[in-house]
Specification:
Helix content: 40-55%
Structural class: mainly alpha
Oligomer: single chain
Low-confidence stretches: none
Order of helices and strands: HHHHHHHH
Length: 155
């Protein structure tokens, strides 16, 4: 199969990649990507399959690194592909967080000394701020906002 993206490293790029690999002061995947680029260079004569076997990766990884180098340049080729959108949408955006804090600042329901994480989650659902939410999401949100007005042993 004819390669669509041909890696042609300049002498300067080759030297930068060699220095990067030999310094060993980067994430392992970056060093692997640098090695892939060095071997994918036209001058090396290595096939993608050989490169994948040598660096214990999938041939698709070799092709992706090669493509990112040709299309975007060396820096992007050394990095992993950034996620285009989050895997999970956030349950609480800024407005939802504000509702949560406002609820937590209010007096707890009758018969309770303080809010629990479950009670806060239930209240958010009751007020239709969210459809569903777990107590752990409430805990992480409150921890992120450094809010501590709930019981120390809540949850």
């Amino acid at each position: 199969m004819k390669k669509k993206y041909i890696v042609r490293l300049t002498e300067n790029e080759r030297e930068q990649l060699r220095d990067f690999v030999t310094s060993g002061k980067a994430a392992a995947y970056k060093i692997k990507h640098a090695n892939i680029l060095l071997k994918a260079d036209v001058r090396s004569g290595w096939l993608d399959k050989q490169i994948a076997e040598a660096f214990d990766c999938h041939p698709g990884t070799v092709e992706n690194v090669r493509r990112r180098f040709v299309v975007y340049g060396m820096q992007r080729a050394l990095e992993r592909k950034k996620q285009e959108r989050p895997s999970h949408e956030r349950k609480l955006d800024g407005e939802g967080e504000a509702h949560l804090i406002a609820i937590a600042c209010k007096e707890p329901p009758d018969g309770h000394d303080c809010w629990t994480l479950e009670m806060l989650a239930d209240e958010l659902v009751r007020l239709k701020v969210v459809d569903t939410i777990s107590a752990q999401t409430v805990r992480r949100t409150l921890k992120k906002t450094n809010f501590s007005h709930i019981a120390k042993n809540a949850g």
